Amino acid sequence: MTVRIDEAYEFPHRHLLGLRDYSSRDILHVLDQASNFLEILNRPIPKIPTLRDKTIVNLFYENSTRTRLSFELAQKRMGADVVNFSSSSSSVSKGETLRDTIRNIESMKIDMVVVRHPSPGAPHFITRCVEAAVLNAGDGAHEHPTQALLDLFSIRQRTGRLEGLKVVIIGDISHSRVVRSNIIAMTRLGMEVVLCGPRTMMPLFVEEMGVRVSYHLEECLEWCDVAMALRIQLERQGGGLFPSQREYHERFGIKKRHLKEFPHFVIMHPGPINRGVELESEVADDPRAIILNQVTNGLAVRMASLYLLSGGKRGPS
């Protein structure tokens, strides 16, 4: 279904660094634009020349599969010239600084930069070095705004609404940039959020972000409309945060029996899934899981974000 875009609305942002500076209207405007791009993706020829004559650099200082491929495919579906940069095969490995790298890239006359970096705030720093529009594809454990936007889009697509929904986010809260962006966006749109996971994976003062904390999975599943399981990020941990993956799964993994006991909640996961840890395989493959929808919707959301930050005002045709 095509969503009518408010043509009188002037999108006020030049960058997408995080969602803290985005109002509820800004967020909903991105989601509405994404609805139209999703319709384009369902066409026999899913392409539109919206970013023709634009040059975009994907600047990835961390390994990524889903996010990088999603951005790259979105850019190519919109006709942009795409340059992929990997720090492992660049002058970064020889000691070149982020500032020098990005300024050298900008001298090649680029229009947009998509950046993933292990240091929080790196995308903000890049905006002070270049004139190009900057999109944050994940900075450390800080934010991952397009992931939160695609999560919201997927929830609205399945339930028909956002305001008033109850969401539980389960797992490695401390190390997750997905959580931070989702908390900001969900609470701003009137959703109720509870975080659930081991005490050792729960950041201090998390209640100050306007959410509640629970350590009892079954209570949360009985309460919620949406259950979002997070990947256990072993690569970001120093070890010892939980005894074993088996024990984590026993206490905080969503199991097939939960689907029978609590038959109403929707299942989400940002991927990649550790099957048998965050979710039993039967849960990941259940019709109530919208994990693959999230992947498809991520493409539409990133197309919408690129379109708006390139100066687009009206919906694509």
Protein described:
The protein is of the alpha/beta class and 317 residues long. The protein has two domains: 24-141 and 297-309, Rossmann fold (3-Layer(aba) Sandwich), CATH 3.40.50.1370; 145-295, 3-Layer(aba) Sandwich (Rossmann fold), CATH 3.40.50.1370. Helices cover 37% and strands 14% of the residues. It has helices at residues 24-41, 66-77, 98-106, 122-127, 145-159, 177-188, 217-223, 245-252, 256-261, 281-284, 291-309; strands spanning 55-60, 81-86, 112-117, 133-139, 166-170, 192-196, 212-214, 226-229, 266-268. The strands form two sheets. It has a five-stranded parallel beta sheet with strand order 7-6-5-8-9, sandwiched between helices. α1 (24-41) packs across α5 (145-159) and α2 crosses α11 (291-309). The radius of gyration is 19 Å and the shape is globular. The model has no long low-confidence stretch (mean pLDDT 91).
Q: Which strand-content bin applies to the residues?
A: 5-15%
The assigned CATH architecture of the largest domain is 3-Layer(aba) Sandwich
Order of helices and strands: HEHEHEHEHEHEEHEHHEHH
Structural class, judged by helices and strands? alpha/beta
Summarize the structure.
This protein is 37% helix and 14% strand. With 317 residues, it is of the alpha/beta class.
Fill in the keyword field for this structure.
single chain, 317 residues, alpha/beta, Rossmann fold, 2 domains, 5-stranded parallel sheet, 4-stranded parallel sheet, 9 strands, globular
